[in-house]
Amino acid sequence: MSKGLxxxxxxxxETLAPNNKYLRNKLLWDLAREHSGITNDNEIEKPFExxxxxxxxxxxxxxxxxxxxxxxRDFDDLIENYPYKTKRLEICQLRKKIIPLLKVMLExxxxxxxxxxxxxxxxxxxxxxxxxxxxxxxxWRQLEELIFQNLSALNSGKRELLLSILIRGxxxxxxxxxxYKKPLGKLIEQCSEQESLxxxxxxxxxxxKKFYSNIFPKSELNHGVFKSKLYSFVQADSRGxxxxxxxxxxxxxxxxxxxxIQLLPGHQDSPTKSLGFERRTKFSPLLDEIxxxxxxxxxxxxxxxx
Length: 306
Description:
about 5% strand; 13 helices; 5 strands; single chain; flat; two-stranded antiparallel sheet; three-stranded antiparallel beta sheet; mainly alpha
């Protein structure tokens, strides 16, 4: 016999009721503030966190709530949601101050680390690790055959575009030794912009677009663009386990927001401005905790199952 909802479950549902979606980490912080779940060191109490996590799991199992699991899409998403992905209040508050400043710097000096070409390669590299990837390659082979069958009926401009798609597609989806500099997404856009499209050409293009959107979901492409921009500010090891603000970005923050950076615990300015003074500047260790590997992980958004 069911015991009904527990106190924590009822509390969560009451908090979610007025909202469309609620970040799980923000929910944890809000409840901890309101119900004495924060320690004297301004950290979320572990027993309180565990009790909330258990309540969330039970609510999902009983279908009282729905959880959307997704990665961050852009800098606005980062500013709104990432600060709460920590158990320490000082880190949460510092992220709220620093990350909007990084966004302003990005808008002035937009220098993404990699473009759509590299993003496509990364997504397909991950897809190839799956046992189901053989179905992707088989579908691409069918598209190849369809394109080959219709090439001779096209004028030179449209034929060149489809040949380019063939080369780029073979580079991405097969193990053929070929390279094409333009991303597949851009080539598909160019095809869509062509004038006087025949029925056969539109048929082929529709199939290519459907295939592309299935393999490269918009959410994954957006996350790739976001990561590209984020890498303008952070450095990470090859596995993304260690993620920190680059040293030159720390100096930019010090230059433009001196008081904020100087007041952080542990910061020490260089005693002189002589040659090599930058090496003697010691930044607060807190700056290295603004970002960590969780910035690339999935975030959980809760909503009531209405």
